[in-house]
Amino acid sequence: MARITASVYTSHVPAIGVAMDTGKTQEPYWQPLFQGYEPSRQWLRENTPDVVFLVYNDHATQFSLDLVPTFAIGCAAEFKVADEGWGPRPVPDVQGHPELAAHISQSVIQQDFDLTLCNRMVVDHGLTVPLSLMCGNPPASDYRWPFKVIPFHVNVVQYPVPSGQRCFELGQALRRAIESFDEDLNVQIWGTGGMSHQLQGARAGLINKPWDNAFLDDLIAQPAQLARKPHIEYVREAGSEGIELVMWLIARGAMADVAGGAAPTLRHRFYHVPASNTAVGHLILENAA
Ligand code: DHB
Ligand code: FE
């Protein structure tokens, strides 16, 4: 059967992708950030999954305000890289897993979560920056990502957005879906976006280090309690774009302890300010073997 072996949490700041694509990672501004991901790249080389179920948000790249799905799953065999603003990044397109995506869709919709099925979609920095941070950009000699990816988009752009509680419960449904797939696959689930940041308005540039670090503590040790945090607290404390953090609760809800299993092992924790307008947070949690 397929198994969820670990969850990874990371911010997706687009300027991180630009720093990597333009050879700036060793500059003083960026070097401490990339150093914080060195242990993660080593861990991922030693724990390369078959598939990553990657929870992210599209930023008006695939879904404009014409059409805003709350939860959308990528069912295609391939997803082209695209982006707003700076244009598509020079990184490989993403290979999907249509059979597993179809199984997850069937199972999760039967568990009463309505998903939008995407048989063709493009992916933006919300998905490619976490891949680059965790894997490094693939070399020309082997120009592909080291695993398949099922993109899973969450609306955190236009209100109403889903609650932390709904996201946490969706994670639990995803675990049941993935672990009932009849093929031996090593699957990781990644929750991306965040941490505190606000890109517009009077409070643009807001960063809240104590709140972010308390969020990391609670995500590790008491996610069910964290899931009850209302939207207004994210916006007040972590800024308008801090709401991206509800996506981390989807990945956390899919871990074994939430269904009565053993507590996960913390493999890595990292927090860094600044990266563009955003605080960068990162965790790796492993399920017991
Ligand atoms: C920034 C952060 C984001 O989450 C985003 O989607 C775009 C820009 C930033 O900090 O610059
Ligand atoms: Fe964002």
Q: How are the elements arranged and paired?
A:
Elements lengths: L2 E8 L3 H8 L9 H6 L1 H9 L4 E6 L14 E4 L3 E4 L12 E2 L2 H13 L5 E3 L3 E2 L1 H11 L12 E7 L9 H15 L7 E7 L16 H13 L1 H4 L4 H8 L7 H8 L11 E11 L2 E9 L3
Parallel strand pairs: 1-9, 2-8, 2-9, 3-6, 4-7
Antiparallel strand pairs: 1-11, 3-8, 4-5, 10-11
Helix pairs in contact: 1-5, 4-6, 6-10
The structure holds 3,4-dihydroxybenzoic acid and fe (iii) ion.
In short:
With 289 residues, this protein is an alpha/beta fold. The chain has helices spanning 14-21, 31-36, 38-46, 98-110, 125-135, 164-178, 209-221, 223-226, 231-238, 246-253, and strands at residues 3-10, 51-56, 71-74, 78-81, 94-95, 116-118, 122-123, 148-154, 186-192, 265-275, 278-286. Residues 12-15, 59, 197, 199, 241, 276-278 line the site of 3,4-dihydroxybenzoic acid.
How do the strands line up in the largest sheet? 6-3-8-2-9-1-11-10
CATH architecture: 3-Layer(aba) Sandwich
Shape, principal axes of CA atoms:
globular
Q: Low-confidence segments, ≥5 residues, pLDDT <50?
A: none
Q: Can you characterise this structure?
A:
- With about 290 residues, the chain is of the alpha/beta class.
- The protein has a single domain, classed as 3-Layer(aba) Sandwich (Protocatechuate 4,5-dioxygenase, Chain B).
- Helices cover about 35% and strands about 20% of the residues.
- It is built from 10 helices and 11 strands.
- The chain has helices at about 15-20, 30-35, 40-45, 100-110, 125-135, 165-180, 210-220, 225, 230-240, 245-255; strands spanning about 5-10, 50-55, 70-75, 80, 95, 115-120, 120-125, 150-155, 185-190, 265-275, 280-285.
- Helix 4 (about 100-110) crosses helix 6 and helix 6 runs parallel beside helix 10.
- The radius of gyration is 17 Å and the shape is globular.
- It starts with a strand and ends with a strand.
- The relative contact order is 0.23.
- The model has no long low-confidence stretch (mean pLDDT about 95).
